[in-house]
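Exercise: predict the structure of this protein bound to DGJ.
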Amino acid sequence: MSLLAPAGSGAIRYVAARKLWHLEAGPVSYVIGVNEKNELQSIYWGKRLWRDDDLAAAHSNPEWASFDNSGNTTPQEYPGWGGGRYIEPCLKVTLPDGVRDLVLHYVSHTIDGDTLRIEMKDIAYGLEVTLAYQVYPESGVIRKSAVIRNRTSGPVTLESAQSGAWNLPRGEGYRLTYLSGRWAGEWQINREPIHPGMKVIESRRGNTSHQANPWFAIDEGSADEERGRVWFGAIGWSGNWRLSIEQTSHQQVRVTGGFNPFDFSYRLGSGESLETPPFYGGFTDGGFGEASRILHRFERVNIMPGGATARLRPVLYNSWEATEFAVDEAGQKALAAKAAKLGVERFVMDDGWFGARNNDRAGLGDWTVNRQKFPNGLGPLIDAVNSLGMDFGLWVEPEMVNPDSNLYRQHPDWAMHFPDRPRTEARNQLVLNMAREDVKNYIFEALDRLLVENPKIAFLKWDMNRNFSEPGWPEAPVEQQKELWVAYTRNVYEIIDRLRKKHPKLEIESCSGGGGRVDLGILSRTDEVWTSDNTDAFDRLRIQEGFSYAYTPKAMMAWVTDVPNFNGRSTPLQYRFLVAMMGSLGIGGNLNKWSADDMALATRMVYLYKSIRKTVQEGSLFRLFSPDAGTFSATEYVSGDGRQAVLFAFRSAQDYGYPPPVVRLSGLDERAVYRVKTIDRKLTGGLETVSGAYLMNRGIDLRLGGDFDSTAVVFERLE
Ligand code: DGJ
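Solution:
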């Protein structure tokens, strides 16, 4: 008998006769079975299958000589390290009596709506694992996680605890795409063939990191933006994470992800358990473009606070690049007045407002208002900002302490350290050991007090400007000190969750010196992220493109700042605006220095942005011409209801006098007619109305030349 769920719905079915589960996640099928050895075997991940009768019961693969037993040749869902397996394990343990062998077998399962839970247990010991699979039918995304439980009578040490493994269809010729970078150079796209062996991308830095991001995409070697099978995934964890992309000697490509096993050790007392971070996976045959669009929708609807009903991101102003640490009431009020004139909706005062914070050498940890700069507290500035029609946001960096601070003088032991060893400073600061309960509670109370005393603070920009060093926790028992890596992140999450619960209107931006803490874990509890400290519009084109592979433009904060930028480049104000308008628009320039013409252009741009922001933030994104591929780039956004499309185009340099390439749009209705609105008449042919068929097949010609030219064209669908 075949059971078929209606299209677009999700279903998890257990086919008892063949001991397999068919997870139907909208357009995607994921199939797992229990094989004749009672192992949990991966059977299929890809485009949706409709006929359960096609699916044979799982059966292990034969061994390959005496060197690879069937545990190595059979794709498994959650292999333990034991039983002669050499593939990357999902779980590695030392049992109470020193045994380091783990063979997990299927015990039972439950299906609860869109969630399947499978219980596994070691063949001899009371070491249990619950695998949870949640399907998201609208997107085809599946969320995996594991709870590891010690039901033995003594302590168990976990040495690797992964969220799960994704097995691709057996074969070779796969290609990996991933994101790497560094401070001010995040989100660089890397694409390379997958060969036998293992490629590891990871963070050992305590947070998600600028250097690598916990996202991957794998295709069969020839996918492009519009076509080709792409399997993709992301870990929701803002601490040390690892993705191992492995091609076994049996042509099996598998991606294992979860807590980074580096310097990892987690002790489970009898009866205790550890839950891994979520590991999300998705599939499309519509190329990298569709893979990104699936993730964007999924993040907005299923991950970010407020889900599908979350408000659009307001246009914000941020003081950092204008005033750095030299903030005071009069100066901020003056900037706020100018920002309001541009149509800004949120005014954010960045670093410098607290403690003895006149530079980056002092004050972190002392979250009280600096009375020299704000003699009457923050109230008068907040009131002024509110009376200008904007809400007020404030910068904080709660996890850090300057040695030159009252907090450090009172609690030097609160900083992460190993006793009697140097404490490595970065930006003159140390990391508080947030794994400690007292530190966690102190930070929660400090932030809560700030919000209680200033109830009109609508937004916190939560920064983190360095990575861990000397990750010691001397107060904890020696065998538990490495748990700091996990407990730290858990406690940061807990503080954010508690603050949001107590102050339900509060919004938060995740920042870590730019894009150092962007992942699906932090995105589930913050409303936006700071993409990069690099605000140079030309660099930003590539930074933002890389970001868009994995994360929604709604979360992507992008500011218009002054030129020349930090790398010496100057670009026109319109170019800077249009680049920033491809995400969540912010302004970060020193408005005191902007000319009347600049202010007028900025006002027009903010006005335009408000008319297209729903499309940009919540629409479908099409990367038409990559800034990586040449001097011309173009990105298009189509609104969810198909009524509006927006094209952004950039000519960063003129080469050989060639005109820009013809731009063919995507995602429109061929039969529909669209009214064309240009911002500066750079569309040739004087088109006023045009069909979707023309736009998508003939395409348009743009007049862009010289250096750093730019334009935007808006298409409104006519009835
Ligand atoms: C790093 C952030 O990314 C910047 O935007 C700014 O907030 C500074 N920190 C302030 O110290």
